[in-house]
Amino acid sequence: MRIGQLAEATGTTTKTLRFYEESGLLPPADRMASGYRDYTDDAVGRVGFIHRGQAAGLTLAQIGQILRIREHGQPPCSHVRDLLGERLRELDAQIAELLALRETISQLHAQAAEPEPDTCSADEVCRYI
Amino acid sequence: MRIGQLAEATGTTTKTLRFYEESGLLPPADRMASGYRDYTDDAVGRVGFIHRGQAAGLTLAQIGQILRIREHGQPPCSHVRDLLGERLRELDAQIAELLALRETISQLHAQAAEPEPDTCSADEVCRYI
DNA sequence: ATGAACCTTCCAGTACAGTGGAAGGTCAAG
DNA sequence: CTTGACCTTCCACTGTACTGGAAGGTTCAT
């Protein structure tokens, strides 16, 4: 399977696949006589794993860690569990922060909706912020 | 007021203030005979505005827009209202996305907590993802 | 007069996940 | 034989908000 076909099969681009290889997320592909990369069907699963990891909010670096542990023959289960737990805590903090921000902006927006823009004075940048 | 004093007064660094000037967020400061930047007290308010804008989740580019409109003599109120409304919609989408992600990860994490890591097979990278 | 603390400019790098483009090689169809 | 689609490498750039450091000038106290 050539790189373009893998890209189509996985819903990504050839650029991205080469970037993954360079980043150590995909093993260096075998080459055809022409020098073209030649992928086996496994590659589809591997790219799918990367995408599922990203969908779970892991960074490419974290996904690479898991992949490298797996390559050394050890099941990365406990590591994955830790990673997911950590990500969960990060997410909770992030969500709390965004909710607080939403509250702030919502209030500012409500104030800004009051139709009295004439009272904007020249010595402040904007009374809504 | 020299740049270091402004930095201290606004809780930031001289690097950041020069960066703001270069980015068009602060007007080019007057210079003393020595070439040192010489700020008036207004600058404190202006930097404060930038920080409040950031706290409201606006990007520096958006804050710069408001500042530039203000400089042309027009009160940026309606623009700010639009910006805040837009930011509110973005935030809602972002929060919804993160909540969904939290759900997904929470489930994966709960599965990964089950103590049966022996069943990890060699042909999949990790059954939890 | 000399050292510390402050300032100046300019260049380069950080993290993240790619994206764009140039210059050139390969392959199948017409 | 040429055209077009595909592939290769390499280098540089995107956006965001800074940060680090080098090389040099200024100010003030001792």
How far do the termini of chain A sit from each other?
56 Å
Number of domains of chain A: 2
CATH class of the largest domain in chain A: Mainly Alpha
How many separate helices of chain A? 5
What fold name goes in the CATH topology slot of the largest domain in chain A? Multidrug-efflux Transporter Regulator, Chain: A, Domain 2
Strand order of the largest sheet of chain A: 1-2
- The CATH architecture of the largest domain in chain A comes to Orthogonal Bundle
Q: How much of the polypeptide of chain A forms β-strand, as a percent range? A: under 5%
Short recap of the structure:
The first copy, chain A, has 129 residues and is mainly α. Chain A has helices at 3-10, 14-22, 42-55, 60-71, 77-113; strands spanning 30-31, 37-38. Chain A is built from 5 helices and 2 strands, in the order H-H-E-E-H-H-H.
